[in-house]
Amino acid sequence: MASGGGVDLEEIPSVDLMTELLRRMKCSSKPDKRLILIGPPGSGKGTQSPLIKDEYCLCHLATGDMLRAAVAAKTPLGIKAKETMEKGELVSDDLVVGIIDEAIKKPSCQKGFILDGFPRTVAQAEKLDEMLGKQGTKIDKVLNFAIDDAILEERITGRWIHPPSGRTYHTKFTPPKAPGLDDVTGEPLIQRKDDTAEVLKSRLEAFHRQTAPVIDYYSKKGNVAQLHAEKPPKEVTAEVQKALA
Hints:
Elements: H1 14-28, E1 33-38, H2 45-56, E2 59-62, H3 63-73, H4 76-86, H5 93-103, E3 112-116, H6 122-134, E4 141-146, H7 149-157, E5 159-162, E6 167-170, H8 197-221, E7 224-228, H9 233-244
Parallel strand pairs: 1-3, 1-4, 2-3, 4-7
Antiparallel strand pairs: 5-6
Helix pairs in contact: 2-9, 3-4, 3-5, 5-6, 7-8
Catalytic activity: AMP + ATP = 2 ADP
Function: Catalyzes the reversible transfer of the terminal phosphate group between ATP and AMP. Plays an important role in cellular energy homeostasis and in adenine nucleotide metabolism.
Family: Belongs to the adenylate kinase family.
């Protein structure tokens, strides 16, 4: 390590330096984007967000991960969040917005960010807008991964997993060779607790109840893009690119 806390460039393989240089050149020409991804479990946000992140050089902010990172790093907000969570209470909206505020000042968020899992309520959306307003920025687009509950149910309740290897199957889309058994070991497959119809139903009800008002809130500002999340991933990617063009 060089003095002053910098990294000695000679220690970094030149391939990595070139890759990073090319990435920065590519990124410098990209417009800044501040995005919110909204969609129920299984709507494909997890598939699209890394693609969006790479394409537009954004940072991906998943509030759960950020909270855990702030707690681990023992930042002032992290310490506060830890005390709240240890009492079994929910972390306040102000605290979460504060942690987002801290995160978006990092160099990796220079071109903007993707927010995932937040805001879940109109109150949170208002606090987020207020914080961004103080920095002279705003949310550019809200990508709404709209999908019919019945399609989601088929997608999610058909998932089966082989726990030792992590191999996943789907009764309709990628069935195992022998029903209920792993292709490689022949061991029985299980269904995750969260992947049952009952759990999904309650999660979807909560999602619609909480999130529908958030979509309305941003629709009034005219920055919601409706995606047809039931389509194959490549087609959804094309819709995302069109929405962000």
